[in-house]
Amino acid sequence: xxxxxxxGSDAPGEARFLARLALLAVLGSLLVxxxxxxxxxxMVLGAGLLGVVLxxxxxxWFVAHRGLLRVIGALLVFLAPAGxxxxxxxxxxxxxxxxxxxxxxxxxxxxxxxxxxSRPERPQVATAAARPARPVLIMNPKSGxxxxxxxxxxxxxxxxxxxxxxxxxxAPADVAELARRAVADGADLLGVAGGDGTxxxxxxxxxxxxxxxxxxxxxxxxxxxxxxxLDRDDPSRCLDALTDGEELRIDLGDVSGRAFVNxxxxxxxxxxxxxxxxxxxKAGTALSLMPDLLVGEGVRRLDxxxxxxxxxxxxxxxxxxxPYFSPDEISGTGRRPRLDDGELGVLGIRVxxxxxxxxxxxxxxxxxxxxxxxxHRVEVTVSGPAEADGPPEVAEDAGADGPPEVAExxxxxxxxxxxxxxxAVEIPVAVDGEALQMPIPVVCTLRPGALRVLVPRDRPxxxxxxxxxxxRRILDLAFGRTVRTAPR
Length: 488
Fold this sequence. Notes:
- The chain is α+β, with helices and mostly antiparallel strands.
- It is built from 13 helices and 19 strands.
- Strand 5 (189-193), helix 8 (196-208) and strand 6 (212-216) form a beta-alpha-beta unit.
- Helix 1 (13-35) crosses helix 2 (41-64).
């Protein structure tokens, strides 16, 4: 969304050279296929494609069905790639396949390098930060499997002059209220050692009072810490910001009055994390529920308005605080190259049978089952049965980062509301991994530059993620044509 800008036809010479190398590697792979026609070149291509299709179909049958179809799906997932390898070895086609893989590897490597050099990332501006005089850090001792204790975060923080509020694993606490009390007592910095759900609640208080916020990577996945470039292997290094830090301005997401720092999920994932057994058995719970959520009777689908444009009948919808760099990476390993672009990332998924699953596996972001957008406002409703599922049995942080910090239906201030008192239809929503119920329509927006984040000067995780491959841009670069790119 948004206008495009022209970078001109004078692409850097190095980018043009790499783009041409990428195209030569693609042509080389085609040449290998032509020369190997008599020796099974097309068989290599056809068998490889068939293996991908069968594997994707197997994944669908395994996830969306029970009984015999699930068994068949599991067998296909393992036997399809194994069968391709055996075929190549039996027919003596392994060398042709190896050369094709190498050609495509060179093509993709050169293409990404060309795109990166033609459009270098604009570094996020960091400003000098004074040492906080009265920092207050909230720590969850169960988060990330006990990282607070394992890395001695309490002791290290107190050595650096911070006051630590240690949550009690046996007593759910309103962390937003704890943060507000800390501000009232004179705190000039708020920080959290915990999961993204806890981070978001305290970040909202920091943003409301224009105070710096410190992220300590003590959660399970630490999406926000990863995208800030913080050390996720040693969270104690995040505390270096207290003595040698700099400040970044980043966006803060808002979902119907509640802050989020990473993602808001609707549909299948949100339905699964509502279940109380999900915390103890994530994979088993998901496999048990998926058939009913994907193909069962009365399946709820999602309708949304993305900056006013309709996106209908989706099985799952993911809204992120700034877009992830590649729509093909929908797993937890994806990264956001920036956190200050002022846009939401929107990912919609609709896959209803094995054929659509195969199409998604082969075509990726070009598949009709995957919709990738960016927006400033997303409004979500339901297109399936209008009845709400009712409040979850427990409203805990589904990220296994310790006790629930806020009860279900938490409002923007972190306080709990009685479920169902508004009379509105509610749907499951997973906010930064935390299972909630929210009345429809659920509205996602951004507060651009609302959050001041204090980070260490030395951040080992700062990397430039590889750009998504755009072969049209590669052709433009290679032949010196005007390159049109989205604004940064």
